[in-house]
Batch of 2 targets.
Target 1
Amino acid sequence: MDRYVAIVFSILLGVAAASSRRFPDGFKFGAATAAYQIEGGWNASDKGESIWDRHVHAHPGVVEDRSNGDVACDSYHHWREDVRMVKEMGLDFYRFSISWPRVLPTGFANHISEDGSKYYSNLIDELLANGIEPVVTLYHWDLPQSLQDLGGWANPLIADWFADYARVIFDLYGDRVKTWITINEPIIVCDLGYNGIFAPGINSDNFGAYMCSRNILLAHARAYRLYEKEYKPKYHGEVSISNHIFWFEPATDQDMELTELSKDISIGRYSHPIFSAKGGWPPALERYIAEKSKKEGYSRSRLPSFTQEEIELIRGSYDFYGLNHYTTRTIRPLAAGEAAGVFLVQGISELGVTCGGRPEWPSTASEWFLVNPRGLRDTMLYLKQQYGDLRILITENGYSDSGAELDDEPRARYYKDYLEQVLLAMEEDDVKVIGYTAWTLMDNFEWTDGYQSRFGLHAVDFSDPLRPRTPRRSAHYYAAVARTHDLDATYKFPEEKQEL
Ligand SMILES: *[C@@H]1O[C@H](CO)[C@@H](O)[C@H](O)[C@H]1NC(C)=O
């Protein structure tokens, strides 16, 4: 009898332990891509030129392997296969982005491309026919070159141009798309776009980046308010922005204050205006740049201020928090004569600091990227402490390697370890996470890394004109988690059963 009780007990305990490693029923799993990284068809039909087309054609040397996104995964032709992969993994949603110049070849709303608008309409219909929710990003870095020629994100009128573009897209697809991201990672658009590295390749991180920050927040808010007023009443969708967050830890106890200011400039600059109760720039950051600008002899702060009306427009322009997260870095002051790494900038060059790591954080195929699963939980707890009990949709998280292996055990392990932290955040910190998006569905053009670093759940053979896609071990693991909601789900790879 004792033995029987013990067995029943251990079964019950086993069930209890297992249930604490499960995602709740309503939790959604998806995978993401971006137009320029996968579509190719850069000059198909009447598509306009984007700033990435121009950047890589005019300056091939900016890309490590001198490659470009002219063809990429050729999803312009193979989009049905992309849908099939998402379907085969049993995911709830697919996050993709729309190429602004493919739909609006002139950049303006005077002419809507028939082929361009049909491409995304077909993709959305195919997803829905397969029971997959489309999650659509309006801007993932491929600005029409025609608008860049007029100043791009540094021109305040871009808030009008973006709202006009958003209206076209909401009119075309609002009946079928219920989750929208306006801008993907404004910090990369502004801080990497204006330090000469990413398109448009302008070197002005002390000015251009801040003009961009201001205008991109206004553009986001204009699109949000437009949807709220004219589309939400009939379509009931949700709109937000996706912020890229490096989690920062002080390198030593002496670096605490610099680390807080680094969070303000990197996280707060794009979050405080939208998600805080007060709105506007993070106060400590606004003071810091104003005082520094004055000392430098400028007649006004290099960080342009908002009017009260603009603060109100931006404040509260969200339905959830869109979080892209990959890595944790330490913060320390730059040594004399030392320069910060370009990909590590994340706005912090202003502060005379740079990023380091800890020995226990493994490196990846990307220079900026060290693995620290706990950082995801810390990031979400910080967001909750700063901005209240927001619903968080993780819109990107994933791992880069050289792409050589279909048996990508470290990537599968990364997903498991980071997803475990999502569960812990939900259970221990009571953070409201509504879904998780793997970056990325398949290998693609990784910006200035070209095809050298790969983030794909599926491998893509870029030497084959048909660009065949093959699931990696990580795809099998992630699909098993998505289907069962069980972090410890078992899966088959490729023939034999393998567990992590
Ligand atoms: C499109 O670009 C390719 C190079 O990627 C070029 O070979 C082709 O001629 C271009 N097509 C048109 C219609 O301009």
Note: The two ends are 36 Å apart (CA to CA).
Target 2
Amino acid sequence: MHDFEYRQGRLHCGEVPLEEIAEKVGTPFYCYSLPTLRRHIEAFEEPLSGVDHQTCFAMKANANLAILSYMAHRGLGADVVSGGDLYRALKAGIPGGKIVYSGVGKTAGEIDMAIQAGIMMFNIESAQELEVINERAGMLGRKAPVSIRVNPDVDPMTHPYISTGMKENKFGIDVEGSMAQYLKARDMEHIEIVGIDCHIGSQLTDVSPFIDAVGRLKMLIARLKDHGIALEYLDLGGGLGITYSDEEPPHPRDYARAVLDAVGPLGLKVIFEPGRVIVGNAGILVTRVLYRKQTKSKTFIVVDAGMSDLIRPSLYGAYHDIRPVEEKTGEREQVDVVGPICESGDFLAKNRDLPILIRDDMLAVMSAGAYGFTMASNYNSRPKPPEVLVDGARYHVVLNRQTYEDLVSGETVPEEILA
Ligand SMILES: *Cc1c(COP(=O)(O)O)cnc(C)c1O
């Protein structure tokens, strides 16, 4: 379900040929489709109409201001994981009341900022964090709204690096520990208990782990009720997977139906924190072939984008479909598509069957809208690529390519070290 199609043999985003964008901004660049984004938001929201809920887009998937502003415009809130995320969310016009704050390492400064922004809730990840939030709220003369992020110990059956709800992960607090923290929180002067939260992992392609997690949360909710602790929000996190190659994740409709059935008539407002499912297939990374390099054992296609632009293949062994921007028929070969970075782990694809590629051919690395640009770095002193948003026949450069001056901005050379 996306907007990147060949027309007369040339890959387009909507009605715009990718070559046209490349001529304007150079390569590599990220390209996002606004109509796809709109469709994904609608597909997620449609089955939830009539359900008291708030969707809080997980900003770590894609935090571009234009994209976030569009989310705000469509009524979405944000799941933030840092002060920087919070700054962006507010700047994009997302009201504090639609922001949830997750993450194991919130600093005092970030906590103050979030309290002052009047966020919906902090998702508490440790006993000590709860104490610090109570303290900070006290210093500000406020009450901080909190949920406890429960680690329900279910296996999401996804990549270990993106599993978060198993007992060996650093996230959340186990069920018994959560119970104890709720009782402690109840007696804290500057804490207001508002909800319960879990997020078990990312790129889930089956609903059953979600259902198992909801079951464990419901048992805890019932025990809390016995202790006179009533909640307002049930936050089910994000994690719904997408198709990168041949995965068959549940449609958002089936996901929604299954989790809402499992939640049942609790009378709580349900919070969702989707990231990947909204933006993943709404974006691509476009890169250009620099060289063909033949060794005794392999053919390498060296391109101008690397792990500093898209780290998912290097970090998770993630698969991204790769398509030539100019459609090619005929002979194919098996190649490694690698970047310019000085690391053996710098690759976009390994042993991939692709048409014969030559210098200056352009390639589209598909499904790069989530955890693409947000994970980009300046490693090897490479300026971060631009981001382009396409809407039908029009496109907008929503982030300029970094310049070499940007690379050194903020750096200073103390004169005395040269004396
Ligand atoms: C990463 C994350 C999400 C979003 O996960 P997706 O798989 O992109 O939907 C939601 N909530 C929390 C707390 C996260 O860390």
Note: Residues 4-31+280-408 form a domain with the Lyase, Ornithine Decarboxylase; Chain A, domain 1 fold (CATH 2.40.37.10).
